[in-house]
Design a protein that fits this description.
Elements: H1 8-18, E1 32-36, E2 42-47, H2 57-63, E3 76-81, H3 94-101, E4 105-110, H4 121-127, E5 131-134, H5 139-143, H6 147-150
Parallel strand pairs: 3-4, 4-5
Antiparallel strand pairs: 1-2, 1-3
Protein name: dCMP deaminase
InterPro entries: CMP_dCMP_dom, Cytidine_deaminase-like
Pfam family, one: dCMP_cyt_deam_1
């Protein structure tokens, strides 16, 4: 792994900004995500509803890495929202996809509120040995494209 520190705040800010690309929805959050290697190079990016109406941001970013892709040492997923731990629209949650890819680190801004499901992605990832970092000072920016869901 590279000895140079990776700028989590800069990369998470970029993931948060990707949420602006999401088509609006009344039934799902707008989220942005990045897959980044140990040097800080962005390998993939994704956002909610990127290709299909049920795409989650982490799912779209990981899918763009190709079938059977496996994370190298030091790979980090940056997400504006805590990776989902429950969903009705697809068989696998983003937490499961992150674990299946072998990602060792996840950085997120905003804990999933109980608007649609109870979120436990951070806890499940930590229990599986993934290093999880929360940067809550970026949560307001992550909430911004989702105000219509929160102010009901």
């Amino acid at each position: 792994m590279n000895d140079e520190p990776v700028d989590d705040r800069r990369l998470l800010t970029r993931a948060v900004a990707l949420a602006a690309n999401c088509p609006p929805s009344d039934t799902a959050f707008s989220v942005g995500a990045l897959v980044v290697d140990d040097t800080g190079a962005v390998l993939a990016e994704g956002w909610s509803r990127m290709h299909e109406p049920h795409d989650h941001a982490e799912e779209a970013a990981l899918r763009s890495m190709g079938p059977g892709w496996s994370a190298g040492p030091g790979t980090t997923v940056y997400s504006s929202l805590e990776p989902c731990s429950a969903r009705a629209s697809r068989p696998r949650t983003c937490t499961e996809l992150i674990l299946a890819a072998g990602v060792q680190r996840v950085v997120f801004a905003w804990r999933e509120p109980a608007v649609f499901v109870e979120g436990a992605g951070a806890e499940l990832l930590q229990a599986a040995g993934v290093h999880v970092v929360e940067l809550p000072d970026l949560a307001d920016a992550a909430r911004a494209p989702n105000r219509h869901l929160l102010d009901r």
